């Protein structure tokens, strides 16, 4: 059995950062052999919510959608 191989869970680092991105990494020492990305459902239903609103009504919603970098959404 090879003692250098292990699996770690990487991200999200804060409980409030749910639904963003989580990676399950398989490592051989310091070398990443396999990555299993788990993309969250943070943005689901966005288009449907925005259909009945004007552009100006949607701007604050887009700011809240990406709480890491809200200015990129405008």
Report on the architecture of this protein.
The protein is of the alpha+beta class and 74 residues long. It has helices at residues 46-50, 55-65; strands at residues 5-10, 21-28, 31-39. It starts with a strand and ends in a 9-residue tail after the last helix. The chain has two domains: 1-41, no CATH class; 43-74, no CATH class. It is built from two helices and three strands; from the N terminus they run βββαα. The relative contact order is 0.14. It is elongated, with a radius of gyration of 18 Å. Strands 1-2-3 form a three-stranded antiparallel sheet, with no helix packed on it. Helix content is 22%, strand content 31%.
Give a quick set of tags describing it.
74 residues, 3-stranded antiparallel β-sheet
In short:
This protein is about 20% helix and about 30% strand. The protein has helices at about 45-50, 55-65, and strands at about 5-10, 20-30, 30-40. It starts with a strand and ends in a 9-residue tail after the last helix.
Helical segment count: 2
- In which order are the strands of the major sheet placed? 1-2-3
- Backbone CA Rg: 18 Å
Report the count of strand segments.
Answer: 3
CA-based shape: elongated
How many angstroms separate the termini? 52 Å
Quote the average pLDDT. Answer: 80
Q: Which percent range describes the beta-strand content? A: 25-35%
The total tally of domains equals 2
Q: Structural class given helices, strands, pairing? A: alpha+beta
| Helix content bin | 10-25%
The biggest sheet, with number of strands, parallel, antiparallel or mixed sense and barrel status, is:
3 strands, antiparallel
Low-confidence stretches: none
**How would you spell out the order of helices and strands?**
EEEHH
